[in-house]
Amino acid sequence: MLHGHHGELTVGEMLRRHGISRRSFIKFCTAAASAMALPPSVGLAMAEQLRQAPRPSVVYLSFQECTGCLESLTRSFAPTIENLIFNIISLDYDDTLMAAAGEAAESARTKAMQDNFGKYVLIVDGSVPTGAGGAYCTAGGRSAVDTLREAAKGAAAIVCVGTCSSFGGIPFADPNPTGAWPVTAIVGDKPIINVSGCPPIPEVITGTLLQLVATGKVPDLDEHRRPKVFFGNTIHDRCYRRPFYDQGKFAKSFDDEGARNGWCLYELGCKGPTTYNACATLKWNGGTSFPIESGHGCLGCSEPGFWDLRRPVRGRVGQGRRSFTTPGFGGDCNRRGGRRRDRRRIRRRQPPATTPQRAAWHRP
Amino acid sequence: MIRLADIPVRIEPTPLVGGLGGGVPAILSELASLLERLAKAEEPAAIDLRSLPMSAQDRVELRRALGEGEVQATLTAEGISNIRETRVPGVWWVEHHDRNGELIAELIEVTRMPLILMSATDEIASGASALREQLAAAAAARAP
Protein backbone atom coordinates (compact mmCIF):
# COMPACT_ATOMS: atom_id res chain seq x y z
CA MET A 1 0.00 0.00 0.00
CA LEU A 2 2.70 2.48 0.98
CA HIS A 3 5.43 0.65 -0.88
CA GLY A 4 5.83 0.26 -4.61
CA HIS A 5 6.46 3.95 -5.32
CA HIS A 6 9.90 4.06 -6.84
CA GLY A 7 12.37 6.90 -6.94
CA GLU A 8 11.62 8.08 -3.42
CA LEU A 9 14.01 8.51 -0.57
CA THR A 10 14.23 5.28 1.44
CA VAL A 11 14.67 5.14 5.20
CA GLY A 12 18.10 3.54 4.62
CA GLU A 13 19.22 6.43 2.43
CA MET A 14 18.00 8.92 5.04
CA LEU A 15 19.96 7.09 7.74
CA ARG A 16 23.12 7.20 5.62
CA ARG A 17 22.67 10.95 5.07
CA HIS A 18 22.35 11.46 8.81
CA GLY A 19 25.44 9.35 9.46
CA ILE A 20 23.47 6.70 11.35
CA SER A 21 25.22 3.37 10.96
CA ARG A 22 23.56 0.07 10.26
CA ARG A 23 24.56 -1.08 13.74
CA SER A 24 22.83 1.93 15.35
CA PHE A 25 19.75 1.11 13.34
CA ILE A 26 19.73 -2.59 14.26
CA LYS A 27 20.05 -1.50 17.88
CA PHE A 28 17.18 0.95 17.45
CA CYS A 29 14.92 -1.72 15.94
CA THR A 30 15.92 -4.30 18.58
CA ALA A 31 14.99 -1.83 21.33
CA ALA A 32 11.75 -0.94 19.55
CA ALA A 33 10.76 -4.62 19.20
CA SER A 34 11.59 -5.19 22.86
CA ALA A 35 9.54 -2.15 23.93
CA MET A 36 6.64 -3.47 21.85
CA ALA A 37 7.02 -6.96 23.39
CA LEU A 38 7.65 -8.45 19.92
CA PRO A 39 10.10 -11.32 19.40
CA PRO A 40 13.73 -10.20 18.81
CA SER A 41 13.63 -11.75 15.31
CA VAL A 42 10.93 -9.21 14.38
CA GLY A 43 13.31 -6.40 15.34
CA LEU A 44 16.01 -7.68 12.97
CA ALA A 45 13.52 -8.24 10.15
CA MET A 46 12.09 -4.77 10.72
CA ALA A 47 15.58 -3.23 10.48
CA GLU A 48 16.07 -4.80 7.04
CA GLN A 49 12.55 -3.94 5.80
CA LEU A 50 12.76 -0.36 7.03
CA ARG A 51 16.13 0.30 5.36
CA GLN A 52 14.52 -0.48 2.02
CA ALA A 53 11.16 1.15 2.70
CA PRO A 54 10.25 4.58 1.31
CA ARG A 55 10.14 7.28 3.99
CA PRO A 56 6.49 8.37 3.88
CA SER A 57 5.10 11.85 4.22
CA VAL A 58 2.93 12.14 7.34
CA VAL A 59 0.27 14.77 7.99
CA TYR A 60 -0.85 14.98 11.63
CA LEU A 61 -4.19 16.71 12.16
CA SER A 62 -5.36 17.73 15.64
CA PHE A 63 -9.08 18.28 16.08
CA GLN A 64 -11.23 18.20 19.21
CA GLU A 65 -8.59 16.92 21.62
CA CYS A 66 -6.54 17.81 24.70
CA THR A 67 -3.05 17.17 23.20
CA GLY A 68 -2.59 14.36 25.72
CA CYS A 69 -2.05 11.89 22.88
CA LEU A 70 0.75 14.00 21.40
CA GLU A 71 2.19 14.46 24.89
CA SER A 72 2.20 10.68 25.19
CA LEU A 73 3.79 10.22 21.74
CA THR A 74 6.66 12.59 22.55
CA ARG A 75 7.50 10.42 25.56
CA SER A 76 8.08 7.25 23.59
CA PHE A 77 11.25 5.58 24.85
CA ALA A 78 11.89 3.27 21.93
CA PRO A 79 11.62 4.43 19.23
CA THR A 80 11.96 8.00 20.42
CA ILE A 81 9.96 10.70 18.70
CA GLU A 82 13.08 12.40 17.30
CA ASN A 83 14.32 9.15 15.81
CA LEU A 84 10.91 8.55 14.26
CA ILE A 85 10.43 12.00 12.71
CA PHE A 86 14.02 12.54 11.56
CA ASN A 87 14.63 9.11 10.07
CA ILE A 88 11.56 6.97 9.58
CA ILE A 89 8.85 9.40 8.53
CA SER A 90 8.73 12.87 7.06
CA LEU A 91 6.41 14.74 9.42
CA ASP A 92 5.24 17.45 7.04
CA TYR A 93 2.47 18.93 9.18
CA ASP A 94 1.75 18.91 12.90
CA ASP A 95 0.45 22.21 14.20
CA THR A 96 1.86 21.62 17.69
CA LEU A 97 5.34 20.32 16.86
CA MET A 98 6.15 22.33 13.71
CA ALA A 99 8.06 25.60 13.85
CA ALA A 100 5.97 27.22 11.12
CA ALA A 101 2.69 28.96 11.99
CA GLY A 102 -0.25 30.59 10.24
CA GLU A 103 -0.18 30.75 6.44
CA ALA A 104 3.24 29.05 6.24
CA ALA A 105 2.00 26.06 8.25
CA GLU A 106 -1.21 25.68 6.25
CA SER A 107 0.68 25.90 2.93
CA ALA A 108 3.12 23.21 4.18
CA ARG A 109 0.11 20.96 4.70
CA THR A 110 -1.46 21.58 1.29
CA LYS A 111 1.92 21.19 -0.42
CA ALA A 112 2.64 17.87 1.32
CA MET A 113 -0.83 16.63 0.38
CA GLN A 114 -0.46 17.66 -3.27
CA ASP A 115 3.10 16.33 -3.68
CA ASN A 116 2.29 12.98 -2.05
CA PHE A 117 -1.31 12.53 -3.19
CA GLY A 118 -2.40 8.93 -2.65
CA LYS A 119 0.75 8.10 -0.69
CA TYR A 120 0.80 10.01 2.57
CA VAL A 121 -0.19 8.71 5.99
CA LEU A 122 -2.82 10.81 7.73
CA ILE A 123 -2.76 10.81 11.53
CA VAL A 124 -5.86 12.15 13.23
CA ASP A 125 -5.91 13.12 16.89
CA GLY A 126 -9.25 14.20 18.39
CA SER A 127 -12.90 13.75 17.51
CA VAL A 128 -14.60 15.67 14.72
CA PRO A 129 -17.36 18.08 15.79
CA THR A 130 -20.11 18.35 13.19
CA GLY A 131 -22.60 20.53 15.10
CA ALA A 132 -23.22 24.18 14.09
CA GLY A 133 -21.80 23.46 10.65
CA GLY A 134 -18.50 22.34 12.15
CA ALA A 135 -17.92 25.69 13.85
CA TYR A 136 -16.77 24.18 17.15
CA CYS A 137 -13.32 23.37 15.76
CA THR A 138 -11.73 25.45 13.01
CA ALA A 139 -8.18 26.20 11.89
CA GLY A 140 -7.30 28.75 9.22
CA GLY A 141 -11.02 29.44 8.76
CA ARG A 142 -11.85 25.83 7.87
CA SER A 143 -13.83 23.40 9.94
CA ALA A 144 -12.30 20.15 11.20
CA VAL A 145 -14.85 18.09 9.28
CA ASP A 146 -13.99 19.81 5.96
CA THR A 147 -10.24 19.55 6.62
CA LEU A 148 -10.60 15.84 7.41
CA ARG A 149 -12.66 15.09 4.29
CA GLU A 150 -10.13 16.90 2.10
CA ALA A 151 -7.07 15.34 3.76
CA ALA A 152 -8.58 11.83 3.66
CA LYS A 153 -8.94 11.94 -0.15
CA GLY A 154 -5.21 11.64 -0.84
CA ALA A 155 -4.25 9.49 2.16
CA ALA A 156 -2.93 5.95 1.69
CA ALA A 157 -4.04 5.13 5.23
CA ILE A 158 -5.44 6.91 8.26
CA VAL A 159 -4.11 6.29 11.75
CA CYS A 160 -6.47 7.49 14.49
CA VAL A 161 -4.40 8.27 17.55
CA GLY A 162 -6.40 8.22 20.77
CA THR A 163 -9.91 7.23 21.78
CA CYS A 164 -11.41 10.56 20.56
CA SER A 165 -10.52 10.04 16.90
CA SER A 166 -10.98 6.24 17.17
CA PHE A 167 -14.33 6.07 18.99
CA GLY A 168 -15.36 9.65 19.85
CA GLY A 169 -13.96 9.65 23.38
CA ILE A 170 -14.74 12.40 25.89
CA PRO A 171 -16.21 14.93 23.39
CA PHE A 172 -18.59 12.20 22.12
CA ALA A 173 -19.82 11.50 25.67
CA ASP A 174 -23.36 12.37 26.63
CA PRO A 175 -24.73 15.00 25.95
CA ASN A 176 -22.17 15.49 23.14
CA PRO A 177 -22.86 19.24 22.78
CA THR A 178 -20.63 19.69 19.71
CA GLY A 179 -22.02 16.78 17.68
CA ALA A 180 -18.64 15.02 17.86
CA TRP A 181 -17.90 11.85 15.85
CA PRO A 182 -15.01 9.47 15.39
CA VAL A 183 -13.15 9.42 12.06
CA THR A 184 -14.81 6.14 11.03
CA ALA A 185 -18.17 7.97 11.03
CA ILE A 186 -16.91 10.58 8.55
CA VAL A 187 -14.53 8.67 6.24
CA GLY A 188 -15.74 5.44 4.72
CA ASP A 189 -13.39 4.57 1.88
CA LYS A 190 -9.89 4.45 3.39
CA PRO A 191 -7.95 1.92 5.46
CA ILE A 192 -8.28 3.16 9.05
CA ILE A 193 -6.18 1.97 11.98
CA ASN A 194 -7.47 2.86 15.44
CA VAL A 195 -4.79 3.30 18.09
CA SER A 196 -7.12 3.92 21.02
CA GLY A 197 -6.38 4.89 24.60
CA CYS A 198 -6.75 8.06 26.62
CA PRO A 199 -3.94 8.53 25.81
CA PRO A 200 -2.55 5.51 23.94
CA ILE A 201 0.70 3.99 25.24
CA PRO A 202 3.52 5.93 23.50
CA GLU A 203 5.22 2.76 22.21
CA VAL A 204 1.91 1.55 20.79
CA ILE A 205 1.64 4.73 18.69
CA THR A 206 5.24 4.68 17.47
CA GLY A 207 5.20 0.89 17.10
CA THR A 208 2.10 0.97 14.90
CA LEU A 209 3.68 3.66 12.69
CA LEU A 210 6.96 1.76 12.53
CA GLN A 211 5.24 -1.45 11.42
CA LEU A 212 3.12 0.45 8.90
CA VAL A 213 6.23 1.97 7.32
CA ALA A 214 8.26 -1.27 7.50
CA THR A 215 5.68 -3.51 5.85
CA GLY A 216 3.80 -0.88 3.85
CA LYS A 217 0.59 -2.64 4.86
CA VAL A 218 -2.17 -2.19 7.40
CA PRO A 219 -1.43 -4.65 10.23
CA ASP A 220 -3.90 -7.31 11.41
CA LEU A 221 -6.77 -5.48 13.10
CA ASP A 222 -9.42 -6.51 15.60
CA GLU A 223 -13.16 -5.85 15.18
CA HIS A 224 -12.63 -2.24 16.29
CA ARG A 225 -9.78 -1.77 13.77
CA ARG A 226 -7.09 -1.83 16.44
CA PRO A 227 -3.74 -3.58 15.76
CA LYS A 228 -4.07 -7.09 17.18
CA VAL A 229 -0.42 -7.16 18.20
CA PHE A 230 -1.10 -4.51 20.86
CA PHE A 231 -4.83 -4.97 21.47
CA GLY A 232 -5.07 -8.77 21.33
CA ASN A 233 -5.40 -9.38 25.08
CA THR A 234 -7.42 -7.82 27.85
CA ILE A 235 -5.67 -6.04 30.71
CA HIS A 236 -7.12 -8.77 32.96
CA ASP A 237 -5.59 -11.56 30.83
CA ARG A 238 -2.08 -10.24 31.47
CA CYS A 239 -2.55 -8.60 34.86
CA TYR A 240 -0.02 -9.53 37.56
CA ARG A 241 -2.94 -9.48 40.07
CA ARG A 242 -4.78 -12.15 38.09
CA PRO A 243 -3.79 -14.97 40.50
CA PHE A 244 -5.74 -13.15 43.25
CA TYR A 245 -8.81 -12.97 41.03
CA ASP A 246 -8.54 -16.70 40.44
CA GLN A 247 -8.26 -17.27 44.20
CA GLY A 248 -11.27 -15.00 44.88
CA LYS A 249 -9.20 -12.47 46.83
CA PHE A 250 -10.59 -8.97 46.24
CA ALA A 251 -9.94 -5.52 47.70
CA LYS A 252 -13.27 -4.15 48.95
CA SER A 253 -12.15 -0.55 49.41
CA PHE A 254 -9.06 1.41 48.42
CA ASP A 255 -7.66 1.38 51.94
CA ASP A 256 -8.51 -2.07 53.27
CA GLU A 257 -6.26 -5.00 54.03
CA GLY A 258 -6.88 -6.52 50.58
CA ALA A 259 -5.82 -3.30 48.82
CA ARG A 260 -2.65 -3.20 50.92
CA ASN A 261 -1.95 -6.82 50.02
CA GLY A 262 -2.26 -6.02 46.33
CA TRP A 263 -5.39 -8.13 45.76
CA CYS A 264 -7.59 -7.91 42.69
CA LEU A 265 -9.42 -4.58 42.13
CA TYR A 266 -12.37 -6.12 40.23
CA GLU A 267 -14.88 -5.34 42.97
CA LEU A 268 -13.67 -1.74 43.08
CA GLY A 269 -14.74 -1.29 39.46
CA CYS A 270 -11.61 -2.33 37.55
CA LYS A 271 -12.49 -2.54 33.82
CA GLY A 272 -9.53 -4.81 33.08
CA PRO A 273 -11.65 -7.85 32.10
CA THR A 274 -13.39 -5.99 29.26
CA THR A 275 -10.56 -3.71 28.14
CA TYR A 276 -8.19 -4.62 25.34
CA ASN A 277 -4.83 -2.83 25.59
CA ALA A 278 -1.15 -3.49 26.28
CA CYS A 279 -0.80 -1.63 29.61
CA ALA A 280 -0.18 -4.82 31.62
CA THR A 281 2.67 -5.92 29.33
CA LEU A 282 4.29 -2.79 27.83
CA LYS A 283 3.42 -0.61 30.84
CA TRP A 284 4.04 3.15 30.98
CA ASN A 285 7.02 5.51 31.37
CA GLY A 286 9.53 3.20 29.76
CA GLY A 287 8.09 0.05 31.32
CA THR A 288 7.89 1.39 34.89
CA SER A 289 4.34 0.48 35.86
CA PHE A 290 0.66 0.77 34.91
CA PRO A 291 -2.44 2.03 36.77
CA ILE A 292 -3.28 -1.28 38.48
CA GLU A 293 0.29 -1.44 39.77
CA SER A 294 -0.36 1.96 41.37
CA GLY A 295 -3.44 0.58 43.13
CA HIS A 296 -6.19 1.90 40.85
CA GLY A 297 -8.46 -0.17 38.64
CA CYS A 298 -8.42 0.10 34.86
CA LEU A 299 -10.80 2.79 33.49
CA GLY A 300 -11.29 1.04 30.14
CA CYS A 301 -10.07 4.11 28.23
CA SER A 302 -9.20 2.23 25.04
CA GLU A 303 -12.69 0.78 24.46
CA PRO A 304 -15.58 2.16 22.38
CA GLY A 305 -18.07 3.89 24.68
CA PHE A 306 -15.46 5.38 26.97
CA TRP A 307 -16.52 7.68 28.80
CA ASP A 308 -20.27 7.01 29.02
CA LEU A 309 -20.09 3.24 29.46
CA ARG A 310 -16.82 3.10 31.30
CA ARG A 311 -16.61 6.10 33.55
CA PRO A 312 -14.62 5.53 36.73
CA VAL A 313 -16.39 4.75 39.94
CA ARG A 314 -17.22 7.65 42.20
CA GLY A 315 -18.24 7.13 45.80
CA ARG A 316 -18.78 3.76 47.37
CA VAL A 317 -20.16 0.84 45.45
CA GLY A 318 -22.54 -1.89 46.41
CA GLN A 319 -24.74 0.03 48.87
CA GLY A 320 -28.23 -0.91 47.82
CA ARG A 321 -27.24 -0.52 44.20
CA ARG A 322 -26.07 -2.93 41.56
CA SER A 323 -22.87 -4.58 42.63
CA PHE A 324 -19.88 -5.01 40.38
CA THR A 325 -19.91 -8.70 41.10
CA THR A 326 -23.21 -9.19 39.29
CA PRO A 327 -23.18 -10.30 35.67
CA GLY A 328 -22.93 -7.35 33.31
CA PHE A 329 -20.05 -5.96 35.31
CA GLY A 330 -18.39 -2.91 33.91
CA GLY A 331 -21.21 -0.39 33.91
CA ASP A 332 -21.71 2.69 35.96
CA CYS A 333 -23.20 1.37 39.16
CA ASN A 334 -23.71 4.81 40.62
CA ARG A 335 -26.33 5.99 38.22
CA ARG A 336 -29.86 4.70 37.86
CA GLY A 337 -30.47 3.05 34.52
CA GLY A 338 -26.73 2.63 34.10
CA ARG A 339 -25.09 0.90 31.25
CA ARG A 340 -28.11 -0.31 29.28
CA ARG A 341 -29.67 3.14 29.02
CA ASP A 342 -26.32 4.69 28.04
CA ARG A 343 -25.91 2.12 25.33
CA ARG A 344 -29.42 2.75 23.97
CA ARG A 345 -28.88 6.49 23.94
CA ILE A 346 -25.55 6.26 22.12
CA ARG A 347 -26.96 3.85 19.54
CA ARG A 348 -29.75 6.27 18.68
CA ARG A 349 -27.21 8.81 17.43
CA GLN A 350 -26.89 8.91 13.68
CA PRO A 351 -23.54 9.69 12.13
CA PRO A 352 -23.26 12.49 9.55
CA ALA A 353 -23.10 11.71 5.83
CA THR A 354 -19.76 10.16 4.98
CA THR A 355 -17.60 10.28 1.87
CA PRO A 356 -18.28 8.61 -0.43
CA GLN A 357 -20.11 5.77 1.28
CA ARG A 358 -21.38 5.61 4.79
CA ALA A 359 -18.79 4.36 7.20
CA ALA A 360 -19.29 1.50 9.58
CA TRP A 361 -18.56 3.31 12.80
CA HIS A 362 -18.07 1.23 15.88
CA ARG A 363 -21.10 1.31 18.06
CA PRO A 364 -20.43 0.55 21.66
CA MET B 1 14.40 13.87 27.63
CA ILE B 2 15.47 13.60 31.25
CA ARG B 3 16.25 10.13 32.44
CA LEU B 4 13.75 8.17 34.45
CA ALA B 5 16.35 7.83 37.20
CA ASP B 6 16.47 11.65 37.48
CA ILE B 7 12.83 11.87 38.51
CA PRO B 8 12.87 11.98 42.32
CA VAL B 9 10.33 9.22 42.80
CA ARG B 10 11.24 5.95 44.43
CA ILE B 11 9.72 3.03 42.58
CA GLU B 12 8.72 0.15 44.78
CA PRO B 13 9.52 -3.09 43.02
CA THR B 14 6.37 -5.05 42.28
CA PRO B 15 6.17 -8.25 44.30
CA LEU B 16 6.35 -11.02 41.76
CA VAL B 17 3.15 -13.03 41.81
CA GLY B 18 2.30 -15.49 39.11
CA GLY B 19 5.73 -14.93 37.54
CA LEU B 20 8.08 -17.65 36.43
CA GLY B 21 9.38 -18.33 39.92
CA GLY B 22 12.36 -20.60 39.51
CA GLY B 23 12.29 -19.87 35.79
CA VAL B 24 16.06 -20.16 35.39
CA PRO B 25 16.05 -23.91 34.64
CA ALA B 26 13.34 -23.28 32.03
CA ILE B 27 15.45 -20.61 30.30
CA LEU B 28 18.54 -22.82 30.44
CA SER B 29 16.68 -25.73 28.89
CA GLU B 30 15.34 -23.46 26.13
CA LEU B 31 18.91 -22.23 25.50
CA ALA B 32 20.10 -25.85 25.24
CA SER B 33 17.51 -26.66 22.58
CA LEU B 34 18.26 -23.42 20.70
CA LEU B 35 21.98 -24.33 20.72
CA GLU B 36 21.20 -27.78 19.33
CA ARG B 37 19.18 -26.11 16.57
CA LEU B 38 22.08 -23.74 15.84
CA ALA B 39 24.54 -26.61 15.66
CA LYS B 40 22.32 -28.62 13.33
CA ALA B 41 20.64 -26.07 11.12
CA GLU B 42 22.64 -22.83 11.55
CA GLU B 43 19.46 -21.22 12.81
CA PRO B 44 20.22 -18.30 15.14
CA ALA B 45 17.69 -17.28 17.81
CA ALA B 46 17.29 -14.82 20.63
CA ILE B 47 15.42 -14.45 23.92
CA ASP B 48 14.25 -11.01 25.03
CA LEU B 49 15.00 -10.94 28.75
CA ARG B 50 12.69 -7.99 29.32
CA SER B 51 9.72 -10.00 28.07
CA LEU B 52 10.17 -12.57 30.84
CA PRO B 53 8.73 -11.99 34.30
CA MET B 54 12.08 -12.49 36.05
CA SER B 55 12.88 -11.39 39.56
CA ALA B 56 16.23 -9.78 40.39
CA GLN B 57 17.21 -13.06 42.04
CA ASP B 58 16.37 -15.00 38.84
CA ARG B 59 18.62 -12.66 36.87
CA VAL B 60 21.56 -13.12 39.21
CA GLU B 61 21.08 -16.91 39.08
CA LEU B 62 20.93 -16.91 35.29
CA ARG B 63 24.11 -14.84 35.04
CA ARG B 64 25.88 -17.18 37.42
CA ALA B 65 24.69 -20.25 35.53
CA LEU B 66 25.91 -18.91 32.18
CA GLY B 67 29.16 -17.37 33.46
CA GLU B 68 31.67 -15.31 31.50
CA GLY B 69 33.26 -16.45 28.24
CA GLU B 70 36.28 -15.32 26.24
CA VAL B 71 34.80 -12.51 24.16
CA GLN B 72 33.70 -9.11 25.41
CA ALA B 73 32.81 -6.42 22.88
CA THR B 74 31.73 -2.83 23.41
CA LEU B 75 29.73 -1.19 20.68
CA THR B 76 29.52 2.60 20.58
CA ALA B 77 26.51 3.35 18.42
CA GLU B 78 23.83 5.74 19.75
CA GLY B 79 25.00 4.78 23.24
CA ILE B 80 27.01 1.88 24.60
CA SER B 81 26.16 -1.78 24.00
CA ASN B 82 27.88 -4.57 25.90
CA ILE B 83 28.09 -7.85 24.01
CA ARG B 84 29.64 -10.75 25.88
CA GLU B 85 29.92 -14.39 25.06
CA THR B 86 29.02 -16.51 28.07
CA ARG B 87 30.89 -19.59 29.22
CA VAL B 88 28.58 -21.53 26.90
CA PRO B 89 29.93 -21.08 23.34
CA GLY B 90 27.29 -19.60 21.06
CA VAL B 91 25.33 -17.99 23.89
CA TRP B 92 25.80 -14.21 23.98
CA TRP B 93 24.51 -11.78 26.60
CA VAL B 94 23.66 -8.49 24.86
CA GLU B 95 22.83 -5.24 26.65
CA HIS B 96 21.90 -2.14 24.66
CA HIS B 97 21.99 1.27 26.36
CA ASP B 98 20.85 4.55 24.85
CA ARG B 99 22.81 7.82 24.83
CA ASN B 100 21.67 8.54 28.39
CA GLY B 101 22.90 5.17 29.61
CA GLU B 102 19.36 3.84 30.04
CA LEU B 103 19.01 0.09 29.32
CA ILE B 104 16.78 -0.14 26.24
CA ALA B 105 17.10 -3.83 25.39
CA GLU B 106 18.59 -6.93 26.99
CA LEU B 107 18.77 -10.17 25.06
CA ILE B 108 20.40 -13.54 25.07
CA GLU B 109 21.39 -14.38 21.52
CA VAL B 110 22.13 -17.91 20.39
CA THR B 111 24.38 -17.45 17.36
CA ARG B 112 27.98 -17.80 16.11
CA MET B 113 28.37 -14.06 16.31
CA PRO B 114 25.67 -11.43 16.90
CA LEU B 115 24.68 -9.86 13.58
CA ILE B 116 25.19 -6.40 14.98
CA LEU B 117 28.96 -7.00 15.33
CA MET B 118 29.51 -7.91 11.69
CA SER B 119 30.36 -5.23 9.12
CA ALA B 120 27.70 -4.78 6.47
CA THR B 121 28.40 -5.26 2.75
CA ASP B 122 27.13 -1.82 1.70
CA GLU B 123 29.11 -0.14 4.45
CA ILE B 124 32.29 -2.05 3.49
CA ALA B 125 31.90 -0.79 -0.08
CA SER B 126 31.37 2.81 0.99
CA GLY B 127 34.34 2.48 3.36
CA ALA B 128 36.54 1.37 0.46
CA SER B 129 35.52 4.31 -1.70
CA ALA B 130 36.06 6.72 1.21
CA LEU B 131 39.62 5.36 1.60
CA ARG B 132 40.25 5.76 -2.16
CA GLU B 133 39.08 9.37 -1.99
CA GLN B 134 41.31 10.03 0.99
CA LEU B 135 44.31 8.60 -0.89
CA ALA B 136 43.50 10.65 -3.98
CA ALA B 137 43.19 13.82 -1.89
CA ALA B 138 46.55 13.12 -0.20
CA ALA B 139 48.21 12.47 -3.57
CA ALA B 140 46.76 15.71 -4.98
CA ALA B 141 48.11 17.64 -1.96
CA ARG B 142 51.62 16.19 -2.47
CA ALA B 143 51.69 16.94 -6.21
CA PRO B 144 53.76 20.02 -7.10
Model description:
The complex is a heterodimer of chains A (364) and B (144). Chain A has a domain at 55-231: NADH:ubiquinone oxidoreductase-like, 20kDa subunit (Rossmann fold, 3-Layer(aba) Sandwich). Helices cover 34% and strands 10% of the residues of chain A. Chain A contains 15 helices and 9 strands. Chain A has helices spanning 11-17, 22-35, 40-52, 68-73, 81-88, 102-115, 144-153, 163-167, 169-172, 202-215, 228-231, 242-247, 257-260, 279-282, 338-348; strands spanning 57-62, 90-94, 120-125, 128-129, 138-139, 142-143, 155-161, 180-181, 192-195. Chain A has a 5-stranded parallel β-sheet, sandwiched between helices. A two-stranded antiparallel sheet of chain A has the order 4-8. Chain B has one domain (20-142): 2-Layer Sandwich (Ribosomal Protein S8, Chain: A, domain 1). Chain B has a 5-stranded antiparallel β-sheet with strand order 1-5-4-3-2. The longest helix of chain B has 22 residues, at 121-142. The chains are: A alpha/beta (364), B alpha+beta (144). The A-B interface holds A 16, 20-24, 26-28, 30-31, 33-35, 37, 39-41, 44, 75, 77-78, 80, 240-244, 262, 285-289, 293 and B 1, 4, 11, 14-19, 45-48, 50-51, 53, 75, 77-79, 81, 96, 98, 102, 104-107, 109, 115-116, 120, 122-123, 126.
Give a quick summary of the entry.
The complex is a heterodimer of chains A (364) and B (144). Chain A contains 15 helices and 9 strands.
